[in-house]
Specification:
The chain is of the alpha+beta class. Helix content is 24%, strand content 24%. Residues 47-168 form the MsrB domain.
């Protein structure tokens, strides 16, 4: 019994360490029940309205702080000129010229557009990170880290499912 308990504990600890190290947090029932942020935002909808207006994956990420699997977003390979907006409220968030390949599996940017995003502390997995959310609807977008390229040195590591891309007019 002692051996089994130690095995289960070490397996759970290893999974948490792997998730924290890889910056990947799967969508779970517990995450889905955490609810939307308690702050107030310009765009508000009931939970039923969010479910109706978003895909299940968008809903899990934007409204319940889930994380898509790395390398699963087609936006990783989006290199055209244009703008990346919030999939929840369509607010423009990132200009394409700030996108770079971070080799993490998620679309990454070195700066958001002015007054587009807000941040708050995220202490999930016992690690302190900075969560990034849409300033207009509060949708969870991803996290920002201080290991990005010049000129900011920041890496806004976003969930592709939380974004939509609009190409620049030709």
């Amino acid at each position: 019994m002692q051996c089994r308990r130690r095995f289960l504990f070490s397996g759970a600890a290893a999974l948490a360490a792997l998730a924290a190290a890889s910056r990947w947090r799967p969508v779970t029932a517990a995450a889905a029940q955490s609810g939307a942020p308690s702050e107030s935002f310009e765009v508000t909808r009931t939970d039923a309205q969010w479910r109706q207006s978003l895909t299940p994956a968008q809903y899990a990420v934007l409204r319940h702080e889930g994380t898509e699997r790395p390398y699963s977003s087609p936006l990783n390979d989006e290199h055209r000129a244009g703008v990346f907006a919030c999939a929840g409220c369509r607010l423009d968030l990132f200009a394409s010229h700030t996108k770079f390949d971070s080799h993490t599996g998620w679309p990454s940017f070195w700066a958001p557009l002015d007054h587009a995003v807000a941040t708050r502390e995220d202490r999930s997995f016992g690690v302190s990170r900075t969560e990034v959310h849409c300033r207009r609807c509060g949708g969870h977008l991803g996290h920002v880290f201080d290991d990005g390229p010049p000129p900011t040195g920041l890496r806004y590591c976003m969930n592709g499912v939380a974004l939509m891309f609009t190409p620049a007019a030709a």
